[in-house]
Design brief:
The protein is an alpha+beta fold and 630 residues long. It is 19% helix and 21% strand. The chain has an eight-stranded mixed beta sheet, sandwiched between helices.
């Protein structure tokens, strides 16, 4: 069936039929769009937003000599419109797969329907749109080749979603893709790193197919998530109780009026929580590169999910995170620059004249200037990795991670971010916020014993493309010939009771292996009725500390009548621990694993007469992945 849209404006009529574009015959306006693409070259432009970027906050691109040539990237997303004029030159023949509609046969093009979201096409443009001679628009790796894996536009399928993911990874491996971009993840308030029934089988497939020293296999880049701070449960409270509390409640919050809020407003605000990136098992496996999002102003974006699983920060634009020392208790409400990229031609966007086709440089609706989120940040890193691989195609997955960590920068970015919802929670007096219990929220950058700077907001820092490419050109292959080891130790007989408002002495885990750490996964086995007050900190033998779980976390009940309604910790038995990944920390990268490790569990819950808020720390599974030091 043909779909017709009639777009009427001051400009000539555009008719879209069956998603083929009939455009006016005159040449597209030649305005230089590159000058508006702050993530490529930040000169303080507005990029069609209402406020300016901060000059110098960008990818720091290398020379055009390294442009992604001979690198293949699979966009696992909604179907990509590979007939877009800026994507056609880099579209692979038989390099795509329609997982829902025809999962067994490669294709050159997945049909675009009116139900196809623009998300995948936007991701593709960020990574590898070809250079446009007319308007200078381009992707980061503008000579790389791209394919599309339709993972989300559903039709009839005999396969489960798990099977479709496995088919996608098999396809990527068999078609020799170098990079898979995954700008997606679990919904908020899902804790699959503790309870996913599918994590092991898919993780094993990834482990078998990732890019090893043979340069065969893929590198997975994934977004950290957009759930700091998350409103899902707060909005449910509003829906169930008919109160007019909503997102707008937070936009006018000032410190002076926090104590004068109405009861239903306090209940609403008490349910807004940071949902940590590492709750999603896909983002707690060491075999992916997890990406946070920086704003155009040099501080982590307000939405960018945090966690010890982050590796690197890319560019997503949009709202700014609040800082620890400022007096802001509400969401950033200023329109900030976002990412300019391709969209499905003819689709009207939102928010400004450019995206609605009222400006001559986008009168044919080929582009969007409002792409944002960690969905936009992940493809900036995929594009950078394509540039690195085009400069040195012999690099493995571990080499790429090493180069990104070595060359990441924290010099131009704003320190000390703190989610505004945490500031509100502190002042609503929901938890014991004494220094000994709440201090983990004051931690920012740490320096580990191997000399790496690390933050749960930024990972190792913001990507520095030129430095990364130069490092790759003179790379010394530190892991060549080294054995990758996975050392697991379990203790399910700890059985420590931790009372409200306290923490017990850390339990000790002794490691006798000389391993140069790549990553640590920890699965704490805990029993409690109120798991949102739990904090967990790991300390290495060299005394580096990593917070993997903060008090005031999103392990809260969706029950709308009683905030203190019971919610069991999702990982409360050893069987679950044996079957699941647990939480990932990258903070100990390249430290020596040998020695005594310490795990501290914090109970920041308050005592209540009608409920037991104690925490029973039953046991722990500790897993270290790293290379032998010999």
């Amino acid at each position: 069936m043909k779909i017709f849209f009639l777009i009427i404006s001051a400009f000539p009529i555009i008719i879209i039929t069956s998603c083929d574009i009939i455009v006016p015959s005159e040449e597209i306006d030649k305005k230089d769009l590159f000058k508006e693409m702050w993530h490529l070259k930040n000169t303080g432009q507005k990029s069609y937003a209402k406020s300016e970027a901060v000059s110098g906050i960008d990818l720091n691109l290398p020379s055009d000599k390294y442009n992604g040539k001979n690198i293949k990237i699979l966009i696992a997303d909604d179907a990509v419109d590979l007939k877009h004029p800026d994507l056609i030159p880099n579209a692979l023949i038989n390099g795509s797969i329609d997982l829902y509609n025809d999962p067994l046969n490669p294709t050159s093009y997945i049909p675009i329907t009116q139900n196809t979201e623009t998300h995948g096409t936007k991701v593709a443009g960020v990574i590898a749109a070809a250079k446009n001679k007319n308007n200078k628009f381009r992707g980061i790796a503008y000579s790389a080749k791209i394919g599309s894996a339709n993972l989300f536009e559903k039709a009839n399928s005999i396969f489960s979603y798990t099977t479709l993911q496995m088919l996608m990874y098999d396809f990527a491996y068999n078609q020799n893709f170098d990079i898979i971009n995954q700008s997606y993840g679990e919904n908020p308030f899902v804790y699959s790193s503790l309870s996913s029934s599918n994590s092991q089988v898919i993780n094993e497939l990834i482990k078998n197919n990732y890019r090893k020293n043979t340069a065969k296999g893929f590198i997975i880049v994934t977004s950290s998530g957009n759930y700091t701070c998350e409103f899902k449960y707060a909005d449910k409270y509003t829906e169930m109780n008919g109160k007019k509390s909503s997102y707008e409640t937070t936009t006018n919050i000032k410190y002076d009026n926090l104590k004068n809020l109405k009861d239903y407003e306090k209940k609403y605000l008490s349910r807004i929580r940071p949902h940590f990136s590492l709750f999603d098992w896909k983002k707690s496996t060491p075999y992916t590169i997890v990406v946070g999002a920086l704003s155009a102003n040099g501080i982590i974006a307000e939405y960018s999910s945090i966690g010890s699983n982050l590796w690197i920060t890319g560019f997503g634009g949009g709202e700014l995170s609040r800082k620890t020392e400022d007096n802001n208790f509400n969401s950033d409400s200023i329109e900030r620059p976002k990412i300019i990229t391709t969209t499905i031609p003819g689709r009207i966007g939102f928010g400004n004249l450019f995206d609605n086709g009222f400006l001559t440089e986008n009168k044919n609706l080929y582009y969007s200037s409002t792409f944002t989120g960690t969905s936009a940040a992940a493809p900036t890193i995929s594009g950078v990795i394509a540039l690195i691989l085009s400069s040195n195609p012999k690099l493995s997955f571990w080499d790429i991670k090493h180069i990104l960590a070595k060359t990441a920068s924290n010099k131009k970015i704003e320190p000390n971010p703190k989610p505004y919802c945490i500031k509100v929670i502190e002042n609503l007096n929901l938890f014991d916020t004494s220094n000994s219990l709440w201090s983990v929220w004051k931690n920012n950058w740490i320096t580990n014993a191997a000399g790496y700077h690390f933050s749960n907001f930024y990972g190792f820092g913001v990507v520095n493309t030129n430095e990364a490419v130069n490092y790759a050109l003179n790379y010394d292959y530190p892991y060549q010939g080294k054995l990758l080891s996975n050392y697991v130790i379990k203790n399910y007989n700890i059985q420590k009771i931790i009372n409200e408002g306290s923490f017990d002495y850390p339990i000790e885990i002794k490691i006798d292996k000389n391993i140069k750490i790549q990553a640590i996964n920890i699965y704490p086995v805990i029993e409690t009725n109120k798991s949102d007050g739990i904090g967990i900190e790991i300390e290495s033998p060299q005394h580096t500390k990593s917070v993997v779980l903060y008090p005031a976390n999103s392990l809260i009940s969706s029950n709308t009548d009683d905030y203190n309604n019971k919610l069991k910790y999702p990982g409360n038995n050893s069987k679950l621990a044996d079957e699941n990944i647990g939480f990932l920390s990258n903070a100990f990268y390249e430290e020596d694993a040998k020695g005594t490790w310490r795990v501290k569990v914090i109970n920041a819950n308050k005592k209540e007469l009608d409920q037991n808020n104690q925490v029973l720390f039953k046991g722990v599974k500790f897993e270290i992945l790293g290379f032998s030091k010999n």
